[in-house]
Design brief:
This protein is α+β, with helices and mostly antiparallel strands. The protein has 3 helices and 29 strands. Helix 1 packs antiparallel against helix 2, helix 1 packs parallel to helix 3 and helix 2 packs antiparallel against helix 3.
């Protein structure tokens, strides 16, 4: 993890709806603490990572940073190894060895309460989260399988049963994807949590690693064009709606550990630092130094990554000028009070969408339509709106506005999902 390599962060705008002339507005540090900060994840205004400032390995803690308040905060304090955080909504999850093996733990950002997700005596690693569902890789059966946990029902489920290894799951909505070795090489497979059906996404005989998913798009690192020596990896994608595979990058060298949100795909590479707009075919520099480590993550118009420009691993971020996802990102841009009217407007819009969503849901259920595959989005929207209302009552109108915007997005996605069921 500490090996320093000369790489860069690149960003590609794909699936080009709603994007025009995208560029980098500003790059800025999230943490420049003298110790090591690794593996950032981001959701909404919150960035999380694991950090060795409290004594170094094996004592790693999870920290967070609020882009709205420009405030850093510590999440874990147990003297153990807590790392590989993931975040969605108000919940942060990570792998944790406080019990002598790696378990999965969680933390609620609103209640500030920590809780165990799985404490099985075997190894549980690489958690990912969407809504109320947490997934991870688990070796309790003598090989690594994918498991899941529903935080609403407190039910754990085994997702894969193949006797080979399955690693590094990712989740969006009701779809879980992972790296799978049942065919003797790394492929990408998927699973639908509602239908309980497993399906292959790519079975190319070369290696495919690090799958990620956003809506109907799955991406991964792919070695099919590598002649030798593991020095040429590309990023590929797959559209679940059309069952179509497509190549995203074809540059020389390795494009590693891709991340996706909306139209943005980010990865780290040994080539020059750039941002690529698929519509205008223009490249714009995203990092001001080539001494950059890896692990990019994307949310909306923010890309975060771990960066070695200061001689140790810090967390940096870049704000992208994209019009597919507009939201306030820092108190630098707006005073709290000036955001009150906008927050109120967006909360009213969210309430209107809430009413529409509940009406359409009721109509669908009256027709006997199974809507369970969409209801996770409704739960997310309700939670986001409740959080917006809490921030509004407390006078933090910037945060209230941001969560209202996110609840609007979730309600719209829920309605889109219902209409896709012929409601």
């Amino acid at each position: 993890m500490k090996e320093r390599i000369m790489v860069s962060i690149a960003v590609l705008v794909v699936l080009a709806s709603g994007v025009s002339g995208a560029s980098i507005l500003v790059e800025f540090p999230i943490t420049t603490e003298l110790h090591e900060q690794w593996c950032p994840a981001i959701y909404g205004n919150i960035i999380v990572w694991h950090d060795d400032r409290n004594g170094g390995w094996p004592n790693l803690d999870i920290y967070g940073y609020d882009l709205i308040t420009s405030t850093e905060f510590q999440i874990t304090t147990i003297p153990a190894t807590e790392y590989w955080p993931a975040i969605h909504g108000n919940t942060v999850v990570w792998q944790d060895n406080r019990n002598g093996n790696y378990d999965i733990y969680g933390y609620n950002l609103v209640t500030q309460e920590e809780f165990p997700i799985t404490t099985n005596g075997s190894e549980q690693r690489s958690p990912a989260i969407y809504g109320n569902t947490v997934v991870w890789q688990d070796d309790r059966n003598g090989n690594y399988d994918i498991y899941g946990y529903n935080m609403l029902t407190n039910q754990e489920v085994r997702i894969t049963t193949d006797p080979n290894n399955q690693y590094t799951p990712a989740i969006y909505g009701n779809i879980v994807v992972w790296n799978d070795y049942r065919n003797g090489n790394g492929d990408v497979y998927g699973y639908h949590l509602i239908t309980k059906k497993e399906f292959p996404i790519t079975k190319d005989p070369s290696e495919q690693w690090y799958p990620e998913i956003y809506k109907n798009t799955v991406i991964w690192q792919d070695w099919r064009n590598d002649v030798c020596c593991l020095d040429n990896a590309d990023v590929y994608g797959y559209d679940l709606a059309t069952s179509t595979e497509f190549q995203i990058t074809s540059y020389p060298g390795r494009e590693d550990v891709p991340a996706i949100y909306g139209n943005i795909v980010a990865w780290h590479s040994g080539s020059s630092s750039y941002f690529y707009d698929h519509v205008t075919s223009t490249r714009v520099q995203i990092t001001i130094t080539s001494s950059v480590f890896h692990s990019p993550a994307v949310y909306c118009n923010i890309v975060v990554w771990m960066d070695y420009r200061n001689g140790n691993s810090d967390i940096y971020a870049a704000l992208l000028d994209t019009n597919f996802c507009t939201r306030p990102t820092s108190s630098v841009y707006h005073s709290v009070k000036s955001m009150e009217p906008l927050a109120k407007t967006n909360m009213l819009k969210a309430k209107e969408l809430q009413s529409e969503a509940l009406d359409v849901l009721s109509q669908a259920q009256e027709k006997g339509i199974d809507t369970s595959c969409c209801e996770g989005l409704l739960e997310e929207a309700e939670e986001l709106l409740l959080t917006a209302q809490e921030y509004f009552k407390g006078g933090n109108y910037i945060a209230a506005n941001n969560y209202a915007i996110e609840s609007i997005r979730a309600y719209e996605e829920f309605l889109e999902c219902l209409r896709g069921l012929d409601c």
